[in-house]
Amino acid sequence: MVFLHAGTSPIVSQTVMSAMFVSLGIFLVGMGFGYVTKNEEGLFQHRWILSSAVALTLCAIFFGMLPSLIRYYGDTDVEFYSALSAVTILHAFVSAPAIIIASYYVFGVLPKKDLKKWMRLTAVLWIASFAIGVFLFLQMFGLLPSIPSMPGM
Amino acid sequence: MAEQNFEKSKNVRKWLITASWIGTAVVVIALIIVLHFSL
């Protein structure tokens, strides 16, 4: 069986990636509801759709991404200064605030002022996380065009 | 009264979520350190 850099089987990686694309779809629908909504009913839809995206994402994180992260950095001869490691750390740093803020929203803890600003900030963090995640996935499978001056890419 | 109780339960929720995330971070970092030195 072929394993990737983090010792995670490609089947798990691909399943996580598929789950995250579903999450992206739910996220876009939920965000759309938030954008066009003008009444309580719309906000209710917005809240529950995005809560399901957060739940799906949390499953992917705890069953796929965190075990990979632990296996990757738990390895004694981890290539810490490689491009893969850099993108992994970037993904973790952009995504951690995104998922943490989102889980506050899911449990009904919302900022008292500048609610729209906070919602937009969270949306930007989520979209950035999705984009970096796709990049990381392609990099893991060696599907990015290689740059000769960057070893490990 | 109802308003006060709502605020209280919101605060409890806020701290539960914070504690869960800090707990997760501690467990992940501990696992990485333990695996790093034991493997």
Summarize the structure in short:
By secondary structure, chain A is mainly α.
Q: What is the tally of beta strands of chain A?
A: 0
**What overall geometry of chain A do the principal axes of the alpha carbons give?**
elongated
Query: Helical stretch count of chain B?
Result: 1
Into how many domains do the coordinates of chain A divide? Answer: 1
Distance between the termini of chain B: 56 Å
**For this entry, what is the oligomeric state of its chains?**
heterodimer
Low-pLDDT stretches of chain B are none
Q: What's the β-strand tally of chain B?
A: 0
Distance between the termini of chain A: 23 Å
In terms of DSSP E residues, the strand content of chain B is under 5%
Whole-number radius of gyration of chain A?
Answer: 17 Å
Give the largest interface pair and sizes. Answer: A-B, 14 and 14 residues
Pattern of helices and strands of chain B: H
Helical content of chain B, roughly?
Answer: over 70%
Task: Specify the biggest β-sheet of chain A.
Answer: none
Mean pLDDT across the residues of chain B is 88
Give the key terms.
heterodimer, A: 153 residues, mainly alpha, 73% helix, elongated, B: 39 residues, rod-shaped
Textual characterization of the structure:
The complex is a heterodimer of chains A (153) and B (39). Chain A has 153 residues and is mostly helical. Chain A has one domain (10-140). Chain A has helices at residues 10-36, 40-74, 83-106, 115-140. The mean pLDDT of chain A is 89. Chain B is an all-alpha fold and 39 residues long. Chain B has one helix at residues 2-38. Chain B is rod-shaped. Chain A binds chain B through residues 66, 69-71, 73-76, 100, 103-104, 107-109, and chain B through 10, 13-14, 16-17, 21, 28, 31-32, 34-37, 39.
SSE diagram, text form:
The complex is a heterodimer of chains A (153) and B (39).
Chain A: H1 10-36, H2 40-74, H3 83-106, H4 115-140
Helix pairs in contact in A: 1-2, 1-4, 2-3, 3-4
Chain B: H1 2-38
